[in-house]
Amino acid sequence: MSPSTVHSSRAIYKVAYMPGDGIGPEVIDAGIQVLNKLSAVRGDFEFDFKYFAWGSDAYKRTGKYIPDGGLKMLRKYDSILFGAVGHPDVPDHVSLWGLRLAICQTFQQFANLRPTRVLRGTTSPLRNCPPGSLDWLIVRENTEGEYAGQGGRTHAGTPWEVATEVAIFSRHAIERLMRFAFECARGRPQKKITVVTKSNAQRHGLVLWDEVAAEVAKDFRDVEIDKMLVDAMTVRMTLHPESLDTIVATNLHADLLSDLAAALAGSIGIAPTSNLDPTKKNPSMFEPIHGSAWDIAGKGIANPVGTFWTGAEMIRWLGHGDAADELMQCVENVCEKGIKTRDLGGSASTQEVTDAVCDEIDSVLGGQYRSIIQ
Fold this sequence. Notes:
The chain is of the alpha/beta class. The protein has helices at residues 24-42, 56-62, 70-74, 92-106, 171-186, 205-217, 230-239, 251-265, 305-317, 321-336, 350-373; strands at residues 5-7, 10-20, 45-51, 79-84, 111-117, 135-141, 145-154, 162-168, 192-197, 224-229, 246-249, 272-276, 284-288.
């Protein structure tokens, strides 16, 4: 979306941020510190952050994750920065559908992007997997499929109780997602895409998925395409990471594969997600994928790198790709210096990593942009 305000040559973006639950507030606070530092040093854009207290505490008080009129209010923002949702006292399906999925589906954020690579200064658990050999973009269908929310339960509490969970695959949703995924693949150096499926067993929805993918591929003759069954895909990701580039998969399949991808890249704590409305009619939402992680909440040891990378992807979506690249350069510099949280083999706290990245932004970019301004 275009910036809400422009002062001379400086764009001002209105960003709704909702830290949510668990470690969400800690990593979102760290992310905002870094984003504000980057914007202050560059001087060509800034953020107007607005706090939204939507999370499980609000749900327990009011019975709602999103207050009446909340989505209408949220629609006015350029972007959404989301922490995590999930609380030990609230069933997971209540929290997920009450907040995150309610936003994704209402705002037609149908493309979920999950970039994955081994960052400089980090180590993959895979043997012989240095930075550069694992560099993927996972494109996930984000509004229907296995998470369409269709189904029900009957005869509750009886021996013959039945529950149905209906996956929905529409030609419209598959095609728009495939076209977006192929465009992403076309924009990457390898120009290669792998379509993940399970059409050998799921003979209706995923056969349609395969057919639409093949039809869309005809409009992208410059993009190399192959197809993998989802179970075989886990093996290929582990044994031959260099053979993959852009990956497109259903809501459930990509959800699972992207967590595996994050672990193979070093830690789920570094992994970002973009929930995009490619039409830009609605705000898109950006979040680290690690979840609420209540076991480490409040200890000051949560890895903020996933939120920094998420912030970089938000900046990229807002039209500042060079700034996104600069931020990731600084993040990787800090990792390379050994300033890392425990999940990456270090001993630094959340705030120590955050301070180090802010200092690196000053050190690497400060002189460059001061000279431009002067």
